[in-house]
Write a structure and sequence with these properties.
single chain; alpha+beta; Aminopeptidase; 5-stranded mixed beta sheet; 4 helices; 5 strands; 30% helix; 21% strand; globular; binds coenzyme A
């Protein structure tokens, strides 16, 4: 198994992994074009775990120049509990650290028990002091 930077040629495999995973919402913002833009804007910051040519894990990571953001941290169910998410996340955080960004956020659905347990056990702070407000000007719920 290898942890490698996410390049767009793996897009279809990553989407297949995400579509097969509950707790992950796929939006228009996950289109190939948007993903390509995201990877170009945050070069070398997102990682995949690849086993025998198959994508079995993913962590997408970017920043706004000030804070880091993780998205779509997903591991194939058959590969969980082996520290793959830890490795993927650590790879992302190490890249952020190289450019001086030490604080990172991730959004997790309130009802995603598995993910909420995962982040809590790694001492990520569950914020009680912030509401996230989102405005969607597209009029499409899927955006
Ligand atoms: C959350 C998720 C990414 C964790 O992936 P994972 O690769 O199983 O995570 P890890 O293996 O790093 O850690 C999970 C457990 O495996 C165990 N583990 C960690 N490293 C291990 C290792 N080297 N060997 C054996 N077990 C290990 C730990 O006990 C850990 O349990 P804990 O969380 O109770 O501490 C995965 O469950 C998943 O894809 N969930 C569905 C998608 C999702 O909801 N993503 C989150 C969106 S924010």
């Amino acid at each position: 198994m290898n942890i490698l930077p996410y390049t767009i040629d793996h897009y279809d495999d990553v989407m297949a992994l995400m579509h097969g995973t509950s707790g992950v919402a796929i939006r228009d913002a996950d289109s190939r074009q948007a993903t390509e833009r995201y990877l170009a804007r945050n070069p070398g910051m997102s990682f995949l775990c690849i086993d025998a040519g198959r994508v079995v894990g993913c962590a997408m990571c970017g920043h706004d120049g000030r804070r880091g953001y993780l998205q779509h941290v997903v591991v194939d169910a058959a590969y969980r509990g082996r520290g793959i998410a830890n490795e993927l996340v650590e790879s992302c955080l190490a890249e952020l650290c190289k450019i001086g960004i030490e604080k990172t956020h991730i959004d997790v659905f309130v009802d995603n028990d598995l993910a909420n347990r995962y982040w809590t056990r790694r001492r990520w702070q569950r914020r009680q002091d912030i509401y996230r407000y989102s405005l969607n000007r597209s009029g499409r719920e899927s955006a």
